[in-house]
Amino acid sequence: MGRLVTLGLLGIAVALLGERLLALRNRLKASREIESIDLPNCHLIKGIEAGSEDIDILPNGLAFFSVGLQFPGLHSFAPDKPGGILMMDLNEDKPRALELRISRGFDLASFNPHGISTFIDNDDTVYLFVVNHPEFKNTIEIFKFEEEENSLLHLKTIKHELLPSTNDIIAIGPMHFYATNDHYFSDPFLKYLETYLNLHWANVVYYSPNEVKVVAEGFDSANGINISPDKKYIYVADLLAHEIHVLKKQPDMNLTQAKVLSLDTLVDNLSIEPFSGDIWAGCHPNGQKLFVYDPSNPPSSEVLRIQNILSEKPTVTTVYANNGSVLQGSSVASVYNGKLLIGTLYHRALYCEL
């Protein structure tokens, strides 16, 4: 009798395991394939060979690239090279990506940049906020951009217990920001368990010198974050839930749910077109290919444009799609004056004229 009970419990455990694995495959869109949608005037950006996970463009056309991200469990084409910040002037006829010098005293050898965000102060000072993972830990680095020297002056490193697994950031002041945690835990095994069990413990944190607090929670995997042009709404991409959350910013800086847009892809970083308010999203059509890298069947790329997200029926357009033959693992898409930049988690970057 005892043996039958044990076999019965084992059968239940195997069945539950199978259900969890199937659910994870569905969240990863593991069986999805896409048809390529090409743009006519595109070329790969020279000098970006190992990822440009995030891109932010200033109103004057200077684009910042976060390059060289390395992460446990993710493929890397340059595992022994630290990351950096590149810049490209999109007003030039043939813009080139140049690496920005970083001030002495900053630990360049362990620089591992992830999400980035710029903020322009009232005196026109440009600040660059960078999510950094030195030795796979979590910090926020704040730099001052010195345009004449093509350099970044390091101002501050921020660490906080409420920022255990930071993914992306949106700056709203010289020392103020919202940031996403894609996991509740910082330990790699607990992160995996959290994802496997689909706990929905990821969150958004508000940081200021005077107050740090969780302002939105309940996400499967909170990734990209950005703000509407009128500064009233915060947009959060929930990668494994295939959603973009529209959150209303309150006077106390808390965020309340306004709406959720469901999509058929894993949404990563979000960029906002400043005049139209359109959202451009770098997406992963098949997450399993992203995390289980096979050079013979590489991860694909997808760029979505979302118009009128606050309306009852937003317009969602696939602007670019590729099966991995040109661009693998698109994580961000950002536009400026008819030019489109597409970055990737660990591959190349694409420059297109729309």
Automatic annotation (TrEMBL):
Entry binding sites for Ca(2+) 2: 54
TM segment ranges: none
Q: Which InterPro entries match?
A: 6-blade_b-propeller_TolB-like, Arylesterase, Paraoxonase2, Serum_paraoxonase/arylesterase
So which residues have sugars stuck on them? 269, 323
Keyword Ribonucleoprotein listed: no
Q: Name one GO molecular function term.
A: acyl-L-homoserine-lactone lactonohydrolase activity
The entry's localization annotation reads: Membrane
PTM comment, free text: Glycosylated.
Q: What class of enzyme is it?
A: hydrolase
Q: How does it assemble?
A: Homotrimer.
Organismal lineage: Eukaryota, Metazoa, Chordata, Craniata, Vertebrata
Q: Which organism is it from?
A: Heterocephalus glaber
Any one GO cellular component localisation term in the record: plasma membrane
Positions of Ca(2+) 1 binding? 53, 116, 167-168, 223, 268-269
Pfam families (alphabetical): Arylesterase (PF01731)
Record keyword Disulfide bond present: yes
Task: Give the bilayer topology.
Answer: Peripheral membrane protein
Q: SUPFAM superfamilies recorded for this chain? A: Calcium-dependent phosphotriesterase
> For this protein, what does the record note about how its cofactor is bound?
Binds 2 calcium ions per subunit.
One biological process term from GO is: lactone catabolic process
**What is the E.C. number?**
3.1.1.2
**So what family is this one in?**
Belongs to the paraoxonase family.
Listed under catalytic activity are: a phenyl acetate + H2O = a phenol + acetate + H(+); an N-acyl-L-homoserine lactone + H2O = an N-acyl-L-homoserine + H(+)
> What name has this protein been given in UniProt?
Paraoxonase
